[in-house]
Amino acid sequence: MEQWQAEMKTLCNKIVGIMLGSLGLTHEDDMNWFQPQNGSDQTQCLFHLNSYPVCPDPDRAMGLAPHTDTSLITVVNQFNTGGLQVYQDGAGWVPVEPVEGALVVNVGDLMQIVSNGKFKSVLHRALVNSTCHRLATAFFLMASSNAEVSPLRKLVDSAHPPLYRPVTGKEYFQLKLKLFMKALESIRL
Ligand SMILES: O=C(O)CCC(=O)C(=O)O
Ligand SMILES: [Fe+2]
Fold it and tell me: Which atom of ligand 1 is nearest to the CA of 48?
C-alpha cells in the first residue's frame, strides 16, 4: 500500500508538472510549493474507495452527488465499469466511458486557484446501475496543509489580475467542508 501510494504521488506530481508546464511554468519554485516543507509529513494525498452496490431502480438513485474535488488533481480508476459523468456547459452530463488500462484525471479546485482559472475544476457525479456492483478508486493530490495556495505569480499581471485570494491547504479544505460548492466563490477577489 505504501509503495502504491508513493507511486501514485509520483504520477500525480508528474501530471501536475506537465499541466503547469503547459502554462509556461517550468522552474522548481513553480512546482514545489504544494509539497510538505521542512521534512514534515503532513497528509498531502487522500484516497477514496467508492463502492456502489447494484441498484434495482438506478433512475431514482445517485451514487455520488454532483461535486467538484478539493484537490489539485484526482486520479480515478473505474475498473471498466462506467458511471462517472462530467458536466459540460451546453452538453449537460457526459458519461466518461471506461477505457481498459486507462485512468481518469479530474481537475480539482486547488488547480483552478493556482492556475488563476486557466484550468477549471470539473463538476462530476457517479451513477449506480442495475446489473453490477461498481467499484471506483479516487486518489486526490492535495496541497500540504500549511502550503499557501494562490494564483501562481507568473500567471498574474495587470492584464490577468489574481482571481482568488491566498488560502492555506488546510483553510481551503475546511472552507469546502463548510461551504461545499460555494467554497471557490467565497475566496474569489
Ligand atoms: O466513482 C467515481 O467514478 C468518482 C468518484 C469521485 O468523484 C470521488 O470520490 O470524488
Ligand atoms: Fe470526485
Answer: 9
Question: What is the set of active-site residues?
Answer: 134
Q: Which residues line ligand 1 (CB under 6 A)?
A: 48, 50, 64, 69, 76, 78, 83-84, 124, 126, 136, 138
Nearest bound ligand to CA 139?
1
Residue 44 has a pLDDT of 85
Give me ligand 2 centre to Cα 92, in Å: 17
Q: What is the DSSP string of the chain?
A: -HHHHHHHHHHHHHHHHHHHHTTT--SHHHHSTTSPSTT-----EEEEEEEE---S-GGG--SEEEE--SSSEEEEE-TT---EEEEETTTEEEE----TT--EEEE-HHHHHHTTTSSPPPPEEE---SS--EEEEEEEE---TTSEE---GGG-BTTB--SB--EEHHHHHHHHHHHGGGHHHHTB-
Mean pLDDT of all residues in 126-155:
93
Assembly ipTM: 0.99
